[in-house]
Amino acid sequence: MICFRYYRCVFLILLLPTLLSACASTQTTSNEPAEVEAINDPMESLNRVTFDVNDFLDRLLLRPLAELYRATIPPGIRDRVTDVVANMKEPDILANNLMQGQFDKAGTTIARLGINTTVGIGGMWDVADSWCDLHQQTGDFGQTLAVWGFSEGAYHVLPLYGPSNVRDEIGLTVDTLLSPWQYLTLMGGLTTFYRFEAANFTATTIVRREKHIESLDTLRQGSIDYYAQMRSAYRQYRAKQIGVDATPKMSTIDDGEQQQ
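Request: output the structure for the sequence above.
Response:
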């Protein structure tokens, strides 16, 4: 038995050569419009099919689950779950802060992890933010690759996961393998490991989708082309995280975590 995390890693690793070859074979020529080159979506036909499947599954299952979670779980408990999920991201953020040479951010992340894991009782309360004004930093391996000078590559929609690009797919794979919690839970045996993986995946997915019920509804309802708007929002959000301007200018989601 292989957990979802490793299915995802294997899937991404096998998919990357196809994406890279597609990018190489569909380069825009000098007489193509600048907007087409900026959008960088050579696999748009396939991406739209994947996007439509993701959107169907979201409306059928994920959004109703997020609404049920919001309706049945008191806000105080939802806040605790959200803070635990955020605290579990800190080791990945720290590793990428260091790899990017962002040592001030790394110091903040270390302090947050220490304070919230201890005083915040396993991260259930974000004491570092509320008491010490230490806000969570950003940091993932897709950003790290950008800092190292790698371009984003072609836009792509991943099954179930949603908007991405070649650089961020590599980053997602590396971040998945970097997470220390999976290795710690293995010390408790495979049963503990699989239970943790299932709980972590479920909590992360539901928390993220519940957070974006309104923003995604607004984006969907206000879009003539929902696919194009989601692509634009994703690219703008990632450009903002990395600290560059993305063209053409497009609509964004509030904090931008993509989710179908």
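Residues 147 and 180 are 23 Å apart (CA to CA).
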